[in-house]
Amino acid sequence: MKLGAVEAGGTKFLCAVGSDPSNPEQIRRVDTSTNPLETIAEVIAYFERYGPVSAVGLASFGPVDYCSGSITSTPKIPWQNFPIRAALERGLHIPVAFETDVAAAAFGEQVAGAAQGCQDFVYVTVGTGIGGGIISGGHFVRGKMHPEMGHLLVRRHPEEPASFKGVCPFHGDCLEGMASGPAMRERWNAAAETLPEDHLAWTLEAFYLAQACVDLAVVLSPRLILLGGGVSAQAHLHDRVRREAARMVGGYLELPEIAAPALPYPGLSGALALAREALR
Amino acid sequence: MKLGAVEAGGTKFLCAVGSDPSNPEQIRRVDTSTNPLETIAEVIAYFERYGPVSAVGLASFGPVDYCSGSITSTPKIPWQNFPIRAALERGLHIPVAFETDVAAAAFGEQVAGAAQGCQDFVYVTVGTGIGGGIISGGHFVRGKMHPEMGHLLVRRHPEEPASFKGVCPFHGDCLEGMASGPAMRERWNAAAETLPEDHLAWTLEAFYLAQACVDLAVVLSPRLILLGGGVSAQAHLHDRVRREAARMVGGYLELPEIAAPALPYPGLSGALALAREALR
């Protein structure tokens, strides 16, 4: 049975089809238009070409409202409160399963990646923003809205340049304000991937991500934290975060495993798995 | 049908019977002996006197191991790894439901207190230590062990005396190190309840508890945070925490309601409710 997957982002949408969540096929990019209906029309055209599919999993950038199936307070004004789930359902006439991009990515890693068999873990992505999906006792943690763990309040590193206030427009120096890709770029005037391994940047980055890991560990007691996304693609970073988190937790509790995600497209894999669930 | 409840603490055990979780009856105290078998014998004698009961809910101080039904790494050496659940089962020959004291208290507030009808909330208790129970999507959050949110890493208040390093033996100035009853006593040389409302102590206390509320909000997206325990019995404190948390979150998201628990004995009420569940 062929399933569909859409990963909706603020810059681009990725579409895929497939029957196995571990293998999204025919991955194509659709630019996120300022006119949502235009983007949706391109997504529907994709499924007309590469389908038919029996259901679609939609992994959306957030914040989202699960009731209405829409993106809520994005700075991309035309997308504010746009009922993206309903728009796809109306165009495709098949079930559309709706999740945040990060929750879908967590599910993808659980079904086909680094969290297989794990019922208690967190998927964190560090890129333009910092976000995460949580599975606890086998269930997504949603609550009133959904996790927004990029805005954890963190302590500043003692060697942090005092002039650097952090890039979060709401909090300045929250986790995202200090450790996202744009934070690194603004602080060091260079893209993270161009900074050498022994640069102070990585000491600071590991310090902030380790705080997030400790805070997640003491709140959720997960077995595993997956650190993914652009910034954390640095192979040396996971080791530093592990060491730093161990230092911070001071032997009080056994930290969860801290590892990298395993899938090339965890969001698309999760979306395929969600589409499969929608048919059960 | 009569049910039993035990709230096991490091200083005292409270025992109760009742048929309605909102009303634990015949509440009696048993001192926590250095010989666990002695304490258990007194608890069993209590139920022989005030029973018979059909099941018991056991709300235990932690950290606990759910598999073995024991308290694990307590500084009270004779209680380390003592199989408290099995000891009660063997003595009473009835089902014993086992939870942490804070998770039981959360459940009590959900069944009969301030969180009725709420499926996504956190119960935090601030006293000798700081701990909490989490219900997310109607399920207890447990994970590998259980939440240990007293050890969230917090930022120091700018007016915090530099000489005060915090009282947590593992982390110094984590949440519990800065905001527990012993932290207030050590910092101000006075018990929290003797400090006037306009004392700097309460500004600092609200600052640390607000950070915990924001961190819990961005990780769990709860609808409600109940702040209970000795220190937070100060009527003025909840308002200050609300204001401080709103300032910290900077309008980024709608904070959960922050309120006081409603029950006089949330742990015993939760234990009665757990006993009832055990019979279903």
General description of the model:
The structure is a homodimer of 280-residue chains. Chain A is an alpha/beta fold and 280 residues long. Helix content of chain A is 34%, strand content 20%. Chain A contains eight helices and twelve strands. Chain A has helices at residues 36-50, 84-92, 101-112, 175-179, 181-188, 200-220, 237-249, 266-278, and strands at residues 3-8, 12-18, 25-31, 56-60, 64-65, 70-71, 96-100, 121-126, 130-136, 139-140, 224-228, 257-259. In chain A, the strands form three sheets. A five-stranded mixed sheet of chain A has the order 3-2-1-4-7. A five-stranded mixed sheet of chain A has the order 10-9-8-11-12, with helices on both faces. Chain A has a two-stranded antiparallel sheet with strand order 5-6. In chain A, helix 3 crosses helix 8. The longest helix of chain A has 21 residues, at 200-220. Chain A is globular. Chain A starts with a strand and ends with a helix. The model of chain A has no long low-confidence stretch (mean pLDDT 96).
